[in-house]
Structure formats: C-alpha cells, structure tokens
Design goal:
CATH topology of the domain at 8-204: Aldehyde Ferredoxin Oxidoreductase,  A, domain 1
CATH architecture of the domain at 8-204: 4-Layer Sandwich
Number of helices: 26
CATH class of the domain at 8-204: Alpha Beta
Low-confidence stretches: 624-628
Strand content: 5-15%
Strand order of the largest sheet: 2-1-6-3-4-5
Mean pLDDT: 96
Structural class: alpha+beta
C-alpha cells in the first residue's frame, strides 16, 4: 500500500539486468523520513562490514525527499548515498538541478543500483519503463559530450541526466556525478558509479505524488515560499551567488590560504571584483522554480584560459583554485573548475590535493622525477589545468593525486602527512574554524568527513549570528557568544547538526534555511503531504537518530576517536596574514569541545554510542553492538 507524500522504490541489479519495484513502509519512513536518512538505514542494513567501496557489493542509492519538487522552495535536490572510496566510511553527496524532481515524476523516490554491469551501460527510467542501453560510445567523453550524445540519441532535450566523466571511469577516488553543470561532488560517488560500469542515469516522467491534504500542503508551501522571497539574503544570493562571500570570508579569517597555512590572504576583494566584472555572465536557477537563484553562468572571454559559457563558479570551487594555491589569476581558476566539471572530479579535493603536492615539492618530498617534469610552485597558474587533466586521466603524478591527500601522504612518506589537510580522509573545504570555533567541532565530527555542507551551521552561528529558529529548542543565542569562545560550542553543534541535517533528509536545499525557512515550515509541509501530525521536536529527533546511525556505520568500518580530530595546522595561529598575531583564533582546547559534544550526544568519552542512547533513538536492534 502506498504512503501519502511518497512514491515507490526501484532496485536495479546491473549484473543481472533486472529490476524490482518495492513499496515503502510507513513506520520506516516516519522514522527516517527520506533522503540521506532513508539512505543511512538502507546502507547500514544492507552492506556488510568492510564492503569494498569499488566492488560490486557496494550500493549506489539515488534518494529524493518529501520536500523535493519544482513547486517547493529549495526542492531541486538529489541525494546520493554510498560507501565512500575516498574515506572508507559513510558517503553522501548532493546535487542541485531538475534531476531530483524529475525522478519523483517517474513514480520513484529511491533507486538503488546493485552489482556491476559486464559492459558499459546507461539506464533510462521513464513512465514507459526501464531500459538498459549500451554506453560503449560514451567511454572517455566529457560530461557535456555524454549528455549531448544521449539527448541526441533519445531525440529529447527535456530528459534529466546524471553522468560521470573520465574521472569516474578511471575511478578517481573523489570523482563526481554531474547533473549538467551541477555536481554531486564529494566523497567519490563518481568512482562508485564507474566501478559498476554505469556511465549515466536518465529520467523523465509526468506522474504526480499523491498527498494527504492537498490544500494544507499547498498552503504550507506558499507560506514558506513567501518567507524565502521576502528575505533580504535571497536577493543577495541572486546578485552575488556564493562566490560573493569571498571578500567577507577573507576579511573574517574564514578563507583557508596556502594549504591552510593561513586563514586570510588579503586578495579576496580584488579577485571577486575581477570575477564579477569579467567572468560573470548572469545568475542562474539550478532547478525550475527556485526562489533564490544562487547559480552562476560564467566564462573567460579570451586569453590562454579561454572558457565557454557554463554553469559554475561557486565559492568553494573558486577558493580551491585561488586561495588554496596562492593563484591570483581568476581566469585560470574559472577554467580549472570548468575542467573539473567536464572531467568529473571534485573541485575541492582537486584543489586541496594539488596544494598538498606543491607543499611536498617545496619541502623536497617530491621532485621533477615524480611530477612528470612539472615544477610545482605556489601562485603558478599555468601548471594547474594540466594537473587537473592528469588527475582525471590518472596519468603520471595524477595517478598519485587521484588517491586523495591521505593515501598520497602514506605513499610519499616522511612528514607528508603534515601537509595532508583532511578529516576522515575527505579534503578540507574553504571555510576555516579559526574564524569561529563551532566550525572546528562540526569539521571533526561530520559523518562524511570535513565537508562544505554540514559545517556551515557552525560558521553561520558563530560568525553570522544565525540561530535558524533553534533558540526555543536549547540553542544558545549567538548574539551572546564570541566567535572565538570555545566553551559551549560542543553543545551548540549537537543541536545545529540535528536540525541542519534535515534539508539533506527531506531533499531540500540548505540555503533555504539561510533565507528564512525554518523547521516549522518543514513540519507544516510534511503534515500536509503525509497526514502525520509532524512537529519540530519529532524532526529534531529524526535528525539525531539519522546522525547516530551514520556514526554507527563509521564505527562498524573501524572509525574511532582519532578520526574526530583536526589536523594540527588547522588548530594553530596562522603563519601569516591578518590573523597571524591574533592568539584567540587558534584552537586552544579542541579536546574540551569534543568532550562537551560527546556528552551532549549521550556518547561515551571515546565517541561510542551508549546502549541507553540507542534505546532512546529506537536503534537498539541495529546489528553493531556499541561499547559502553
């Protein structure tokens, strides 16, 4: 029996070329809601301990949520869940675009890919059914070439496509799954897809999800949409996108520079000025119906980095190819991020890994014999496009760098590990916890490792003084704290994580919460869709349950206390820049903040989940026995 507000699930075995339609269970869905919540349950229950991330037994789950849809503020989301080949732990990656809403229109909320196809294939899912199509002719082609060829073959420009580039085919551990110009970028989902010989997934449908109370549902959506549209941050997102944050982050000490040797550079305003005047073509909605439109269409008009118009230019990507590398050539940064998207590799990990390699070269751990004759230097734009291509193709030095900084450091040896800036194996993104200490705890404890999605709650809380409407639920008023305070930050992060993981659970863009959408809006929409009497308290408990289940996943894979630590460099006062004389910005007692966080979570001092906490969250029947 179908559940109001939900579609169905499709399980596809690529090796056997079979599929199975499955109904969802209402008890399970209310417990985990959807998106990465439901994905956590599926992967925890169906994957064995130590499953090879690139073997046929790993699963690739495409997940939507109750708030996925073109009519929904922030509804253009697709969540992809898997065991990460980069970290060996919990993997999730989100992409904006029309793919998520279009998947729901086929009647399916979740599609699970299992096994491995003998030959390269792409999958087409429409109202007419499922097709396995040969992808032999797509091998080696860029993302744009693949999507154009598929659309021409199907004679349909309106289909939604997610595909991998050469990076995914070559199993780069941080390769992406692309949705036109949008990326499911982190943790290596592209490599998992490539390991299954699945090159693309195509969807198109016209079905409508049946809801319990249509009038209540639409009224709640309109209420949330009005709130987002009138919020002043929405207009700023439209005008400047995320890249517009560069000058402010630089001045606030929130812009990791020269492989995290500093948290500021002093070049942000000039670089963004060039981007806004020379590279920006127009704002862009990532999906049809977005009330914010933070996307950018950009280009490089001419010169040696000439680049066609394309969607891209987000804050993280541009930062990874400017501040991370001391590269002052914005045209080069735009070109390199374009190459990453076309070749299907994560911009953040690529920039971070190149920064790591430059520092290894500078300190004699690599030389020209290791780097194909390339002299790796800071602030040298001409070497960057070639390094991106080498990584995607796994050629020469690119093969080493395609493994990510943690594994590359282990291979290089010596003190290379000191230059490998990561959390749980995931390369660090472009926000710095020396700008606000809550970010340190979110970086250390995030389920998938240091990422640019889950830590933002800490940054906006500390530095932006955003409370997300959570003060009534125990969050200390950010106006009463200093961004460099450490006491109380562990407790705050627990509440922030429980609440702000919910957009990824509900299939919604997190930026809506930055533009006025609250958990009250979520609860009202869910109640209209499902007929449940959903409350904010139940949503927060679901968020807590899901994060604990992801923690169980990582504990089962051997993660422990050491994996919740931060790199030493990230904790130190910056070596240069505006904040190099500001002792308060150094992270002085991370261990205290971590203990405070564990206590707030109800975990033991080693970060293990207690039996009492599992019982409280209705997780006591899970097959991993926690330590007391």
């Amino acid at each position: 029996m179908s559940i109001k507000g939900y579609g169905k699930q499709l399980r596809i075995n690529l090796g056997e070329r079979t599929s199975k339609e499955e109904q969802l269970d209402e008890v399970t869905m209310r417990k985990y809601l959807g998106g990465v919540g439901y994905g956590s349950m599926v992967l925890y229950s169906e994957l064995d301990e130590k499953t090879d991330p690139l073997g046929p037994d790993n699963k690739l789950l495409f997940a939507t949520g109750l708030l996925t849809g073109n009519h929904m503020p922030g509804g253009g989301s697709i969540e992809i869940c898997f065991k990460s080949p980069l970290t060996g732990g919990w993997g999730e990656s989100r992409s904006g675009g029309n793919f998520g809403p279009d998947l729901r229109k086929t009647g399916y909320d979740y599609v699970i890919f299992e096994g491995k196809s003998q030959d390269p294939v792409y999958i087409v899912l429409t109202d007419e059914g499922l097709e396995f199509k040969s992808a032999q002719s797509l091998l080696g082609k860029t993302v744009e070439e693949k999507t154009n060829e598929i659309r021409e073959e199907m004679k349909d420009r309106e289909i939604s496509i997610m595909c991998i580039g050469p990076g995914g085919e070559n199993l780069v551990t941080y390769s992406t799954i692309m949705c036109d110009g949008r990326a499911a970028g982190r943790c290596g989902a592209g490599a998992v897809m490539g390991s299954k010989n699945l090159l693309a997934f195509v969807v198109k449908g016209k079905q409508e999800v049946k809801v319990a109370d249509k009038e209540k549902f639409l009224t709640a959506i309109r209420k949330a949409m009005r709130e987002v549209r009138k919020n002043p941050d929405s207009a700023e997102f439209k005008k400047h996108g995320t890249t517009g944050d560069i000058p402010g982050c630089d001045s606030m000490g929130d812009w990791p520079t020269k492989n995290w040797q500093s948290n500021s550079w002093g070049k942000g305003e000039v670089l963004y000025g060039h981007f806004f005047e020379k590279n920006l073509v127009r704002p862009n909605d990532c999906y049809t119906g977005c009330p914010v439109g933070c996307g950018r269409v950009i280009k490089v008009e001419d010169g040696r980095f000439k680049t066609p118009e394309h969607e891209g230019g987000e804050y993280e990507s541009i930062s990874a190819f400017t501040a991370f590398l001391l590269n002052e050539d914005m045209d080069c940064a735009v070109h390199c991020t374009y190459l990453c998207n076309q070749l299907g590799i994560d911009t953040i990990s690529a920039g971070g890994t190149i920064a790591f390699a430059i520092e290894c070269f500078e300190n004699g751990l690599l030389d020209k014999k290791n780097t194909d004759g390339i002299e790796l230097r800071w602030g040298e734009p001409d070497i960057l496009p070639e390094l991106v291509k080498k990584i995607a193709r796994r050629e020469g030095i690119g093969d080493l760098l395609a493994k990510g900084v943690r594994r590359a450091a282990e291979i290089i040896g010596g003190n290379a590990i000191d230059y490998a800036i990561h959390g749980k194996g995931l390369e660090a993104p472009a926000h710095d916890p020396r700008s606000g200490k809550a970010l340190a705890v979110t970086y250390g404890t995030a389920s998938r490792g240091m990422c640019h999605i889950h830590p933002l709650e800490g940054m906006l809380y500390d530095s932006g003084k955003v409370d997300f409407g959570l003060i009534p639920f125990g969050l200390q008023d950010p106006e009463t704290i200093d961004r460099w305070d450490e006491k109380g930050k562990g407790k705050a992060v627990k509440i922030l994580q429980d609440a702000c993981t919910l957009p990824d659970v509900l299939g919604n863009c997190k930026f809506m919460m930055y533009c006025g959408m609250t958990l009250d809006h979520f609860a009202e929409i869910i109640s209209g869709a499902t007929g449940w009497d959903m409350t904010v308290q139940e949503l927060l408990k679901a968020g807590e349950r899901i994060l604990n289940l992801q923690k169980l996943f990582n504990l089962r894979e051997g993660f422990g206390l050491d994996d919740d630590q931060l790199p030493a460099r990230m904790r130190q006062v910056p070596a240069f820049g505006t904040y190099s004389f500001e002792e308060r910005c150094g992270i002085n007692d991370y261990e205290m903040m971590l203990r405070e966080y564990y206590e707030a979570r109800g975990w033991d001092e080693e970060g293990n989940i207690t039996k009492d906490k599992l019982k409280e969250l209705d997780l006591e029947k899970e097959k991993y026995p926690p330590q007391d």
